[in-house]
Structures are given as C-alpha cells and as structure tokens.
Design a protein that fits this description.
The structure holds two protein chains of two kinds. By secondary structure, chain A is α/β, with parallel strands linked by helices. Chain A contains four helices and eight strands, in the order H-E-H-E-H-E-E-H-E-E-E-E. The longest helix of chain A has 18 residues. The longest helix of chain B is centred in the C-terminal third of the chain and has 20 residues. Classes of the chains: A alpha/beta, B alpha/beta.
C-alpha cells in the first residue's frame, strides 16, 4: 500500500484515445437530403436558365456537382457548375498558417445570374462572407443564394442559408466531418465529440 | 502541403515539400492574373518595403506588381535615393523602415547574407530578392514553376545550366531547387566560370557544350555578368559566343522537345541566338509572367501565422 498511485494505473486504465463519433447522415440520407434541396432550388427559381451553381472549395465542389445533375434532371436542361476558392479573401490570413489554395474555375459569366453558393457545412459564416467577396471579382450576380448540406449553428456573422440538408445542433468543441467521394468508403456525415 | 516560415531567405534551407507548396499556391495566383479583376485582398492593410540596395528593374517591377495584386501598400526604396549613400548602415536603414510599421521587407543587396542578417534584427517578414552571388530564391521558384507547367513534372528531367555559374545567384538557387525536386542538373561554361567545386552541390560539371545539351530537356542560359567580374575570365565575348553561345546548329542537335530558358536580361547574339529567343522553344516571356504568380504565392505564404493548417472551412 506504499504506492497507491501505481495500483491506480493498473486498476483504472485510461479511456480509449479514440474520440466518440456518431453518423448523422449515411449515404442514402445524404442523397435524399440533396434531392429535396434540388427541388427546393427549382421551386424558388422558376426560370431555369438563370441559375448557376458555385461550389466552395473543397467540400462544396462535389455537392455542387451532385446538385447540378439533380437540377438538370428536374429542368431537363444542363446547369453550369463552377468552383470557388476563398483562401485569398479570408479575414484571418495572418492569424493562422496560410491556407491551401485550390483552383477557382468559373467558366461562365455570373453577371445577372442567380448564383447558388454550395458548401458542405455552415458554421461561423465567415467562409460564406469570403465567398461573396471572391464572387464579386467575377461579376455582379442578380441574386446570391446559399445551399449547405449541414447547418451546425454558431454563426458569427449575419448570414443564413436558403437551403439546408440537415440542421445539426452542435457544441463548439464538436467536429462535423463530411465524407464524400472517398475511394472505397460510403458517403457519410459524422459528428465527433471530443 | 506545408508552410510555416516567416521569411523566404534561400532555397537551400527549404524542403521539396515546401517548394512544391509554393508552386501549387502559385498556380492559383496565376489564374488571378488571367481574370478581368486581377486583384485579391490577401494583403490588404499590409505595408511592403522594396529595399533595392543593388539596382534592379525586372525583379523590382515583378515584386511591385505582385504586391499591388495582393492589395498591399508599397514603398520603393533604392540605394541611390537613400541615406545608405550618406553612411547609414543597413541595419539602421531597416530599423527605420520597420519603425514605419513595414510588415514585409523585400531586399536586393550586393552582399551575400544581407537578407538573413535583416531577418535576425527585424520583426518584419523578409524576402530575399537576390543577395550577391549567393541566392535568388524567387527566380528559382518561378523557373521551377515554368518547367513544371510546360513539362508536367520536374523529377527525372535533364536540366543544363549554361553560362556564368560562378557569379550567378540564379544558378545556385536553381541548382538547389531542381536537385531537391529530383531533376538531373548539368552545369556548363568556360572552366574559369564553372569550377568543379559545384559538383558538391549534387550536379554534373562539363565544359563541352554539345555534350552538355545533347540530352537536355531544359537548357537554362545565364548572362555573362560583367559587373561581378573583377578580372576577365575568358578571352573575348566573340570567343564565348563561338564556344558556348546557343545557336540554331547547336539547338538542332538536342532533343526535339527541349526548351530554352533565360532569367533575363538577354544579350542577343552573345549567349543566345536572336531567332531562338523569339522561337516557340523559348520560355523567356512565360518566365516573366509566372514570376508575378510565384511572388504573390511567396508573399501570401509567409504572411500566414504559426500553427497547423486548417484543413477545410467547416
């Protein structure tokens, strides 16, 4: 009994290092949510030719492509898709390591169009603010709308999504992982508790 | 992808991954230069001092344009118009510039190591725009960017650097960058300007130009730097042109897809035949265009703070 601490180590092994995770959306649920969002976009925008989709790098880009295919099927017309990197327009560039910059490809004129920005997770709203600034350099859209797969709350700016796949109340310490198109893995959205 | 450096002082201390980070980032900035609005707000509110103690036109203009396209405020400073002429030391000049709240100092200096010295005495970000015969890191990065863009890769390529190696900071930075990225580098020129000691940097040295360029994918020409030579290192310019100048007959003996580069300013009819400089084998003007994208990428990366890179915005 001279060294109780040592016994404590053997008697109470530490909890596993793996953080606790739970699946919020599986592949089928993601597809169902995106199909509903596509119909909502079509309902809101009655003139198909005016709508273009722009995915925010990186998570928003595959979602924008999926939504464009769903909308093309609804409208029987192809829907232009672009990708936008917001790294050069962030408001915290000197506070953190420089972000990895992905290609911005907007192969159409956005002036006069309804641009639907697409992102995977809406959180602080700062990425969306940067995206609206970045989009300005390409022209003057008639409307900008926002579609996200997950809205996890905790906005720091007056920004709100027009189309939401799923609202997920979270705490600030939790993490939301959206896994799409990873080879050999099912699409899923996972909530990780610390 | 990784970058956690506050300064860009040389290529020698960079890893291959860091060099590739600059090249990947530069690709995004090149696209910015092709838009109707060629400007992004990444350095909005930041002040950059271009401290060119040694004269330079093209590098200074390239840096200035890069800084403007990142929305920075710029002060240009040349040795002729400064207190350096009145006996102020480099350290005092730099401290004074920092007292004006300069966030970045881009320095060109005739003394090797001047940027490293400033990085130790200042809190600002320091970028080396050429220090003596030591290094010219942004030139090597833009050369590597240009090669990768045109050839799709750098690893495994044969690159021959031809000309005045001894006095060339461009050569030294290029040797570091290209060997780190897996290219085979051959150096060629008059024996007085291309000593065998360069083999220690991991490249091949030869004094036979036809053999040096026969298997080259890239022929990188350097200007004869009269201003850095205290004595004549070869008999005459005419003889240099005859023995080492790149002419049509010599180029015809190389790979059909070999490409010609030159950091400028070119001396037509000396190290390069005028027709070759204007041909579609020449990347000289692409190097100039890419220089802006690469310098924007460098300023953008060193501006970043410490800590891990955030993966995605979520």
């Amino acid at each position: 009994m001279g060294r109780p601490g040592l016994f404590a180590v053997f008697l109470y092994p530490p909890a596993p290092l793996m953080a606790e995770t739970s699946v919020i959306l599986n592949a089928v649920a993601i597809q169902r949510a995106l199909t509903r969002v596509a119909h909502e976009i079509a309902e809101r925008n009655e003139t198909p030719g005016e709508v273009v989709l722009v995915g925010i790098q990186k998570g928003g880009v595959p979602l924008a492509q999926t939504l464009a295919a769903l909308l093309a099927a609804i409208w029987k017309n192809p829907v232009p898709v672009g990708s936008l990197d917001v790294g050069m327009h962030r408001d915290d560039l000197d506070r953190r390591a420089a972000p990895q910059v992905q290609p911005t490809v907007i192969p159409f004129d956005v002036t006069g169009k309804t641009v639907v920005l697409v992102d995977d997770v809406l959180f602080s709203g700062r990425t969306v603010r940067a995206a609206m600034d970045a989009l300005n350099d390409f022209g003057r859209p008639k409307h900008i709308q926002l579609a996200v797969l997950i809205d996890r709350g905790h906005r720091e700016l007056p920004i709100k999504a027009d189309f939401v796949g799923k609202n997920v109340p979270t705490s600030l310490t939790e993490k939301v992982h959206v896994r799409l198109g990873e080879t050999g893995k099912e699409d899923e959205v996972v909530l990780e508790k610390p | 992808m990784s970058w956690n450096r506050k300064h860009l002082l040389d290529i020698e201390s960079l890893s291959a991954a860091e060099i590739l980070t600059v090249l990947d980032t530069a690709r995004a900035f090149k696209a910015v230069g092709e838009r109707a609005i060629k400007k992004v707000p990444a350095l909005r509110g930041k002040t950059v001092v271009n401290l060119f103690v040694e004269p330079s036109t093209r590098t200074r203009i390239s840096f200035e344009l890069s800084e403007q396209r990142l929305s920075a405020d710029i002060i240009n400073f040349t040795a002729e118009a400064s207190s350096l002429k009145k006996g102020e030391t480099l350290k005092d000049t730099a401290k004074n510039l920092e007292a004006l709240n300069a966030d970045f100092i881009v320095i060109r200096h005739s003394a090797a190591g001047a940027p490293h010295f400033l990085s130790r005495v200042l809190n600002s970000h320091v970028i080396n725009a050429g220090d003596g015969a030591h290094e010219h890191p942004t030139q090597a990065l833009l050369d590597a960017f240009t090669i990768r863009e045109r050839k799709g890769k750098i690893e495994g390529l044969n690159v021959t650097i031809l000309g005045d190696i001894l006095f060339s900071r461009v050569a030294r930075s290029n040797i570091w960058a290209l060997t780190k990225l897996g290219a085979r580098v051959t150096l060629c020129g008059p024996a007085t300007l291309v000593p065998r000691t360069f083999e220690q940097m991991g490249c091949r040295v030869t004094h036979n130009v036809d053999e040096a360029i026969r298997d080259a994918d890239i022929i990188h020409l350097l200007r004869i730097q009269h201003e850095r030579q205290r004595q004549t290192m070869f008999p005459s310019i005419g003889e240099y042109t005859q023995l080492f100048g790149l002419n049509k007959a010599r180029l015809a003996q190389t790979k059909p897809d070999s490409l010609v580069m030159h950091p400028g300013p070119i001396n037509r009819g000396v190290e390069i035949d005028s027709d070759i400089a204007d041909s579609d084998r020449s990347l000289i003007l692409e190097q100039v265009t890419n220089g802006i994208a690469v310098r924007m990428a460098v300023l953008f990366l060193v501006n970043g703070g410490k800590g891990p890179q955030e993966i995605a915005a979520s």
